[in-house]
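Extended Data, panel c. Modelled sequence:
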Amino acid sequence: MVSRLTPLLVGGAALALATVTACSPVEDDSTSGASPSSSAADACPSGSLGTVAAGKLTIGTDDPAYEPWFSDSKPANGKGFESAVAYQVAERLGYSKDNVVWTAVTFNNAIAPGPKAFDFDINQFSITDERKQAVDFSSPYYLVRQTVITTKKSKIAGAKSLADLTGAKLGAQVGTTSYQAITDIIKPTTKPSVFNNNDDAKKALENGTVDGIVVDLPTAFYMTGAELKDGVIVGQLPQVGVPEQFGLVLDKGSKLTGCVSQAVDQLRQDGTLAVLEKTWLSDSGAPELK
């Protein structure tokens, strides 16, 4: 998988996913006598939204679709973090699995201006102000975590905790949340190395200049799976800094945006997103380091 993430500059208070609020599709009409629940049902009728295909929910993603976000490049199998999230959103909108239709859309086409052939697209889209000029985003369904990676021969390949990393020589790209994660969370006894970009960091790991490097989780999966010989994900770090947020992409001005955000908010509030993240990310090769 090609990482499409831009490292964030250090600064700002950490955002908690639980506190992210979404725009609601429902206006409070206290004079009408309608209850909030009935107003919500009116705004987002279950299984009867104004979708691309009547009675169906069309969901876009790229082809191939990479793990761990999907499994076997088959979005319809419900396996992988984003496939599972998509089906949960569909269910909250009133669409059973049989009424979900997947369509292949390239990453760049999904976020380009213009009408869409999908109701929403899920493909590790970071929410940015620039992209908001062309498309709508739902409430975030995932906050990107920082991750330590190494190679099998490294002394930290078997690390199980933050304490196991304090004696390691680590490195990360300059001015990123990845670097902040090293200094603020791991706090190694040896000053971390700073690199101009992740490619330089990867080379330092390959030649043994550092014991491990810190990158965001999507990049960690890509580097260890496609770029590094004997690459190993040591584990995810606790949230730090201002994390990137992944959101579902919808057509600009879509009437579904509020309903989809409402569904994502429900999944966050009832703990479903946390369960899916643990199942498909933490328990699938990227354990959490504490």
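The two ends are 27 Å apart (CA to CA). This feature is highlighted in the accompanying rendering.
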